[in-house]
Amino acid sequence: MTAALLLTGIAELTTxxxxxxxxxxxxxxAALLLVDGVVAWAGPEGDADAAVAARAAFADTTVHDVGxxxxxxxxxxxxxxxxxxxxxxxxxxxxxxxxxYTAGGIRRTVAATRAATEDELRARLAGFxxxxxxxxxxxxxVKTGYDLTVDGEARLARLAAEVxxxxxxxxxxxxxxxxxGDREAYLDLVCGxxxxxxxxxxxxxxxxxxxxAFTPEETRRILRAGTAAGLPARLHGNQxxxxxxxxxxxxxxxxxxxxxxxxxxxxxxxxAGSEVVATLLPGVEFSTRHPYPDARRLLDAGVTVALAxxxxxxxxxxxxxxxxxxLAVREMGMTPAEAVHxxxxxxxxxxxxxxxxxxxxxxxxxxxxxxAPTRVHLAYRPGVPLVREVYVAGAPV
Length: 397
Ligand code: NIG
Ligand code: FE
Prior knowledge:
CATH class of the largest domain: Alpha Beta
Structural class: alpha/beta
Largest sheet: 8 strands, parallel
Bound molecules: N-(iminomethyl)-L-glutamic acid, fe (iii) ion
Strand order of the largest sheet: 5-6-7-8-9-10-11-12
Distance between the termini: 21 Å
Number of helices: 14
């Protein structure tokens, strides 16, 4: 039997279905009809009875009054590193006393991850997934990159694929210690046997293109190997300093270039003339004390911006998209509406997904009921747990 759920009493509904002058497609005093886990209709509450009659005539419709609260699409977190062992709280503590972040810390997490059993990693990952859901994230990407052996990277990708379809191969995170002095051999491994082993579980390929990680030439080679194997590109770029990341992402036709903290005018122009999403990760700047990326400059240039958590033990050990929204509004020049859009529709665009990140008819019914009358409260009340109810494909989680 068809299962239908009608949400009423929505003070402010963010659909992200663009309307003239309003990219957020906001409806006040709204209702939302979900049928079989998909949005069937969104509109003014006064039209709800007719909408139900027209679309769910034979359905058993449950009505749920959300009590004058705001409803937004579930957050789409397009950048996480959630499969790893241990943590690096000691490095964070040292950074807060002035020690700079370097990519070298990744090798410590690699050692802890290799030492972890599969059951330990699976249980930890399940804990993170619960943490994401509690905070309103309903779609998330997960990268490999903390094992850096053929079998180990395949193990991380397989575990990640148990919880998401958005798995990214990041064998090019750093050159592991055992290949110091023979980078070429490691590149051969990443572009050959490691790629082959991970590919069945992955959807994307990524490279950490940065001083201390991979050079532009190495990045180009790895992205080419990945795309030739059927894994489209995304990229870590321009995180710790100015560099070639954005240019390479545009050249490779990447779905997204992530971080974008240090951008030249040419980088911004290149992004604006491309389909590449700039995924900004303010949890990193919070935790490394680098300057926040300038979202305003990107938006004013016409670049599509996404917000993501980059949840990882080195640079951003938070999975909170509400925190990213608050930081983006306070520190990066975004309006609350732009930040919520970037954390939902922007993330979906960064993953090239049209079924999530919005609540138009046909979307997967992934949504958040906020304990607030408007989405502005996500930035206006930072740190307050405003996620009251979360639905994935029409079912509460
Ligand atoms: O996105 N930049 C590369 N990877 C992570 C950091 C990983 C780590 O330090 O463990 C990031 O910030
Ligand atoms: Fe990252």
